[in-house]
Amino acid sequence: xxxxxxxxxVPELENYLRYMPEELKTRCTIKTYPPKTIIxxxxxxxxxxxxxxxxxxxxxxxxxxxxxxxxxxxxxxxxVGEVTILAGKPRTSVTIETTTACTxxxxxxxxxxxxxxxxxxxxxxxxxxxxYKLYRSSYNRGNRLFYPPxxxxxxxxxxxxxxxxxxxxRRTREEIHEETGISVKTLNRTIRKLKxxxxxxxxxxxVTLNASQQEKAREYLKQGMY
Length: 226
Ligand SMILES: Nc1ncnc2c1ncn2[C@@H]1O[C@@H]2COP(=O)(O)O[C@H]2[C@H]1O
What we know:
InterPro entries: cNMP-bd_dom, cNMP-bd_dom_sf, HTH_CRP, Plasmid_replication_RepL, RmlC-like_jellyroll, WH_DNA-bd_sf. The protein is an alpha+beta fold. The protein has helices at 3-9, 14-17, 24-27, 82-86, 109-118, 120-139, 143-146, 149-164, 173-180, 184-196, 211-223, and strands at 29-33, 38-40, 48-54, 57-62, 68-74, 78-80, 95-98, 102-108, 201-203, 206-208. Adenosine-3',5'-cyclic-monophosphate (CMP) binds next to strand 5, strand 6, helix 4 and helix 6.
C-alpha cells in the first residue's frame, strides 16, 4: 500500500500529516500485521516511530514466569514509540501486540525527532496522546490491590459492555485473567458466585449481563456490597 492509498483509506490521518516535512513522504514505510503479532518486544532497542492507522493493539508486560499482564488496549489512530523517544530512552518499557489486523506507518526515530521540532501542530497531537495515556493509566491504578475479585470483575464487565456495545463478554478466561490480573481459578469461582446471585448469566461459556443485571451490578458497585 502506498502513502496516498493509506491517506485515502484513513481520512482521519490528514490531521496528523498536515504539516509533515515533504521529504518524509518518500522515507516513511507502511507495514500491515495480522492479529496476535508482536510489533515490538519490551526492552528491544527502539529506532522508529509508528502511527497505528488501522486496527487495535494491546500493551502488555510479559514476565519471566510466563505471566502476561495487560496494561491497556489502544484504538486507532494511535502512536507507538513516542513515549520512549520523548523520554530519551533507547528501549521500550512494554511489549505491543496486535489484537486485530493493524496497519502502521513508520518513520525513523531521527525523522520523527526532526518532525516534532518543526511542526508544533503535530507535537501537540503527540503530547495530547501521551497525556491521555498517562491519565487513563493513573485513573485506575491500584484498583486491583484494594478491591475483591467480584468488584473488579463487575467493573470489567460493565466497561467492556460500554466500550464494545455488547451484552456478551466475548473474552476467554485467559484474556480476562491478563486484563484483570485475577487468576483463572479465582475467575471461575467468582463468575460462578456472580451467576448464583443472579448478577450475570452464562451463554455458551461466555458471561452475559442483560439490562437489569447491568443495573444491579452498578448498584452493587455503588454500595460496596461485599
Ligand atoms: N499506559 C499506557 N497506556 C497506553 N499506551 C501505552 C501505555 N504504556 C505504553 N503505551 C504505548 O506503548 C508504546 C511502547 O513504545 P513507547 O514506550 O515508545 O510508546 C508506548 C505507548 O505508545
